[in-house]
Amino acid sequence: MVIAKTVDGEIGIMPQHAPVLGVLVEGGVLRVKREGEGDLVAAVHGGFISVADDEVSVLAEVAELGSEVDVAAARDALDRAQASIEANQEDADAAIEAKRAKARLRAAGEEV
Amino acid sequence: MGAQLRLLRRRIRSVKSTAKITRAQELIASSRIVKAQMRMQAALPYEREITRAVTGVVSNAASVDHPLTVAKENPSKAGVLVVTSDSGFCGGFNANVLREAEALRGLLESRGLSVVPFVTGRKGVTWHSFRNREMGGQWVGFSRAPSYRNAKEIAETLIESFKDDNGIDEIHIVSTEFVSMLTQNVVVKRILPLEVEETEASETDAIPPYFEFEPTAADVLESLLPRYVESRIFTALLESAASEEAARRRAMKSATDNANELIRVFTMQMNQARQAEITQEISEIVGGASALADAAAGKE
């Protein structure tokens, strides 16, 4: 089963799911539940999920597997982004940065 | 030593050093082609999927009117993205692209459109600025190893101008397609507005699935199309990079071959000159000796 976060909310896709094309949110966490193995988790920033013919493809602008996330760097990025949000409430770039950093941390299995 | 001999020696030495340089360039280019091809391969699945998704949306939701899909009724301006290389030494690579771009310009102008060139690659930029052509955008410095960020930057400029009412109404791209190590073709494609092809569904084709959209078809299209344009530009940049290296390898190979041929001809000329000199010296000595002998015989 594949769980992704679209702009409408979370969507879970089981085998034989009807064809769907969804827009993914900035800073979402994608989870692939596999039989007999651990979950495959990835931080996915923007992009699409498309389901057709029992195949799920995720087209992301930027994506990173949870196991490959550099936790220290992500935390650092989060702190920096939050600092600049506090300094300037309307800093849209920093808000996106913070979302991305959070998604990376969550994908790596860290508490945010 | 004769003056001619010295001259030939000097020329051989200089051609030899040129041959060394072109040979090295050739080897560098061949190793770069492989890397460029790998990059092309890596980008392929993404492009395939995004094309499939766009096809899915457009064929499912024919009623979707999006500024990026609908051709304007009276187009007045066309943007042409010309993909060239940053460095030379690649034979006719840039000349071919620019010639094709000129042909397209003529074609568009005959339709009554004014043409705005968008240029990537230092060679193309110089070509345009030398002719005082105003460019809608120019990008240099990544022709050998383009990254997705470069493609995104270009796509953003193009789309912005496309959405603008006074901006461009069509986007064409002139680039080089990498067919094989030996064949690269200049291709002209229209990327926007999308060309919708009506095709008869054959029996072998799967019926395109009826998609559900999250949240709506229009929203999906809104964010899908820019990605599609980016991906098309990225592919064009990557193919152009691979073609550039292939063209460079070929140009450098023929330069090396020519240099070797020159060295052969000069060596032959040099040997001839040397032999002529030796023959002359011998006949001078023989002539001198016999003249002395004759003089001695005359005294007796």
UniProtKB/TrEMBL annotation, chain B:
Gene3D superfamilies, alphabetized: 3.40.1380.10, ATP synthase, gamma subunit, helix hairpin domain
Family matches, as InterPro entries: ATP_synth_F1_ATPase_gsu, ATP_synth_F1_gsu, ATP_synth_F1_gsu_CS
GO cellular component: plasma membrane; proton-transporting ATP synthase complex
Keywords: ATP synthesis, Cell membrane, CF(1), Hydrogen ion transport, Ion transport, Membrane, Transport
Gene Ontology BP annotations: proton motive force-driven plasma membrane ATP synthesis
Annotated membrane topology: Peripheral membrane protein
Lineage top rank: taxon: Bacteria
HAMAP family: ATP_synth_gamma_bact
Record-stated family: Belongs to the ATPase gamma chain family.
Function: Produces ATP from ADP in the presence of a proton gradient across the membrane. The gamma chain is believed to be important in regulating ATPase activity and the flow of protons through the CF(0) complex.
Complex and partners: F-type ATPases have 2 components, CF(1) - the catalytic core - and CF(0) - the membrane proton channel. CF(1) has five subunits: alpha(3), beta(3), gamma(1), delta(1), epsilon(1). CF(0) has three main subunits: a, b and c.
UniProt protein name: ATP synthase gamma chain
Lineage: Bacteria, Bacillati, Actinomycetota, Actinomycetes, Streptosporangiales
Gene transcribed to yield this protein: atpG
